[in-house]
Design a protein that fits this description.
24% strand, alpha+beta, nucleotide-binding, sterol biosynthesis, 16 strands, binds (3R)-3-hydroxy-3-methyl-5-(phosphonooxy)pentanoic acid, 9 helices, four-stranded antiparallel beta sheet, 39% helix, Ribosomal Protein S5, domain 2, steroid biosynthesis, Alpha-Beta Plaits, six-stranded mixed beta sheet
Length: 346
């Protein structure tokens, strides 16, 4: 009987959406109610690193997150593992490949940033886990963003570097709901992303529960899905293509605003932005007014932390403004560019 021992280590960066994903039409397959678009950070920035060992010697699957053993029974994680294993089983030919199907995995995952800070840790986490598992199971020929999506929707976008669209798709089986790179990171030299950690507390309403309530109760979300996002997806791709920051920035800020307006339109309402978040909005707005043009753009996810997109020269000014007006946030401020690289074995 054949024995197996395989291992791989990979890392995947966080991504920051400029057209937000908010709402699922299928909660099990994680199929979204609208398409979304983001930039993936650089491998040198906020990222998850995952090692997977697969061995005939292990008696069970086990998982460690940031040094602590966690239960492997999480349904989304189980869905991911199951999907990878079924692909491996379709491909298994040799005795060694068949022995892989009976072996167990040990998965060790670490973030180089505080997990609880609401900084898209599930996006880099699932992207990285899926990519590393795929190496070990030899299934890298499959469109892996479809598996990352089942772990956490936004994770599918961290499977690629640069500018990435998650096309919602129309099929019920999710086969056409995957991520694709629209532009390389170096398409737009000098683009910078600043992350301002306003609070490192865990977010109050999880994205899953928040989306569920919004889909059931918000009329604004229905308008957003049918009328707003399709146009914005096209417009922001054009702005990126043309390297038109003023256009890009306005769409980015309007989309963040609408996402948080949907949260307020949800019943009962959800609040992710706090007073500091709102002060950041005002600071960026005043900066743009002073410049007479949109030179910086804020965006907020399902938490109070602010992300600012700007070109290098404007970002230098924004960075000093934030350290002046928000001194307590500066130690956790990241000042980085976007990536040229997709998740990579290391
Ligand atoms: O993938 P989730 O369940 O963590 O949802 C993320 C949703 C937002 O971060 C608010 C928007 C987005 O597109 O990333």
């Amino acid at each position: 009987e054949s024995k197996v021992n395989r291992q791989a280590t990979c890392s995947a960066p966080v991504n920051i959406a400029v057209i937000k994903y908010w709402g699922k039409r299928d909660e099990k397959l994680i199929l979204p109610t609208n398409s979304s678009l983001s930039a993936t950070l650089d491998q040198a920035d906020l990222k998850t690193t995952t090692s997977v060992a697969l061995s005939s010697e292990f008696d069970s699957d086990r998982l460690w997150l940031n040094g602590k053993e966690e239960s492997i029974t999480n349904p989304r994680l189980q869905n991911v593992l199951q999907k990878i294993r079924s692909l491996a089983s379709e491909r298994a030919q040799t005795d060694e490949e068949k022995a892989v199907l009976d072996a167990h995995v040990h998965i060790v995952s670490v973030n180089n940033f505080p997990t609880a800070a609401g900084l898209a840790s599930s996006a880099s986490g699932y992207a990285c886990m899926v990519y590393t598992l795929a190496q070990v199971y030899g299934v890298t020929d499959y469109e892996l963003s479809k598996i990352a999506r089942v772990g956490s929707g936004s994770a599918c976008r961290s499977m690629y570097g640069g500018w990435v669209a998650w096309n919602m798709g129309t099929r019920d089986d999710g086969d056409d709901s995957f991520a694709e790179q629209t532009h390389l990171a170096d398409h737009w030299p000098g683009m910078k992303i600043l992350i301002l950690v306003v609070s490192d507390r865990k977010k109050g309403t999880s994205s899953t529960s928040g989306m569920g309530t919004s889909v059931r109760t918000s009329e604004l979300l229905q308008h957003r899905i049918t009328e707003v996002v399709p146009k914005r997806m096209a417009a922001i791709k054009e702005a990126i293509e043309a390297r038109d920051f003023a256009q890009f920035g306005e769409i980015t800020m309007r989309d963040s605003n609408q996402f948080h307006a949907v949260c307020l339109d949800t019943y009962p309402p959800i609040f992710y932005m706090n007073d500091t978040s709102k002060a950041v909005v005002q600071m960026v707005t005043q900066y743009n007014t002073m410049k007479g043009e949109v030179k910086a753009a804020y965006t907020f996810d399902a938490g109070p932390n602010a992300v600012i997109y700007a070109m290098e020269d404007a970002m230098a000014e924004i960075a000093s403004l934030t350290s002046h007006f928000f001194p307590s946030t500066t130690p956790d401020t990241f000042f980085r560019g976007t990536t040229t690289a997709p998740p990579a074995p290391s």
